[in-house]
Amino acid sequence: MSQTLQRSKTPSGSAYVDRGSGGEVLVLIHGVGMRIEAWRPQIEQLSIRHRIIAVDLPGHGSSAPLMGKPDLSDFVTWFGAVIDELELGVVNVVGHSMGALIATGMAATAPERLHRIALLNGVYKRTIEARQAVEARANEIVTGAFDREAPLGRWFAPNETNSDAYRLVRELLQQVDAGGYAAAYRAFATGDTLYCDCWPAVASPALFLTGDGDPNSTPEMAKDMAKAARNGRAVVIKGHRHMVNLTAPEEVTAALANWLTWTA
């Protein structure tokens, strides 16, 4: 795996990386099973002109877990506390997958805290079949006897199995704490409808980006969210799947840099 990024911790135990000092603050939230290192290409490039805060989800990387059986709203509350503890004020936020659901929750419950919002590979109003499949995976993960290789088949195309991105993600999945993974996945599986109707009320510039081959965070979902949002745009990266920020880092970083110029 590439070198582990040096972390700091908030008083409540959330691990984060703070890079760059210019421009507006941009906060990055990764997906289930990942950690801050999954954002390395974006941290390296976007920190040239912006202050970047990347956080480990609770129970991931070096962050303390949430207690009990947290649902998506608990992760949204956690994220708001991170912003408060770091005294970040109003921020731009980018969430990937589970991070996208958390960012959506912030847009729904505290839109005044966001300059802009970007969802990468976000889910939106799953079909009944898709919801049943993801809930079945969540139930399996909770048992502790889950296949850590299984997500790779959904997240990467067959021709990407020898890539650096594939090797990094595979290693992160092998290392993730089982309890932290299970808690986040349960919230991810059951939370896609909790805040999904917020977009007509969100005035912040909103980017919805995914890969055209992502079977679960589909182009149709991105386009539907963009249509529902007051100031939304969809970007679909051709030839990529769920880990598009790692498999198409230049395109994704360019899309984010452009989004950071949008005004309401």
UniProtKB/TrEMBL annotation:
Gene3D superfamilies on file: alpha/beta hydrolase
Top-level taxon in the UniProt lineage: Bacteria
InterPro entries: AB_hydrolase_1 (IPR000073), AB_hydrolase_fold (IPR029058), AB_hydrolase_sf (IPR050266)
Domain AB hydrolase-1: 26-254
Protein name according to UniProt: Pimeloyl-ACP methyl ester carboxylesterase
